[in-house]
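HUMAN: Would you supply a protein with fold tokens?

ASSISTANT:
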Amino acid sequence: MLLKITQVFPNGRYMFIDMYENIPQGMTLYQKEVDIVPNGPIGFEVYVMNLNRSASRWELPNIRVQVTDLSDNVIGEVTTGDIPYNDIGNTNWVRISSDQLGDINPGNNTRVRIKIQNTHNHRMGNDFAIDDIYVFQGPVSCPTLKVDVALPIEAGKEMKITSHTTIDETCNGSNDGKLTFGVANYGNVAYGWKVVTRGTTTQVQGGTNNTAGLTVNNLAPGLYTLKLTSGHQVKFSDNQACEVTQDF
């Protein structure tokens, strides 16, 4: 198969690799020594093409980007996972980058080796090409993937439950108990609310509300937890919105 190089550097060259069993598993296929800024996150981008079709069922390549010191002690590494079979043709380059896998912190080193390796070794399949190896370094204070920053909220401006009162059922078995609660600093955006059985995730009632108070009706006797969830943008790192709770 005559490959077409990627469009990133259309006048460049690619590396074609037939692994077989002559190259030891995990052997470095490409490496380069570079000067770096200590603790600056190392990002990367590389394009890989599996040269076998799915009908072959042969071994899949699995690429590793590794950073070592000059004594070949591993500082950090990331692995792509299996590169899928290629049923498309000679333009089916798979982009692998630190955007997907995370960057590598080089620690206090000022010069390192960047290595491209294949973690598989098999006589059947495991054939691939590599193109456009691009390694870069981000600022020490700005990792190339993401960073969590804790932003304190000024006292008195946090979303909170300001009051809650309960009314018992009018008669045994009528299940018409009530909960009235107040909420502050929800930002005039509808917040989610739900009543769950205490100590569980079993929801009894729930919905959304855009006022500073609400009464929940028709509650059976029991122990519950009220949970309010902000309707504003969720946190970036774990996709979790602000939530406040109150047992009753």
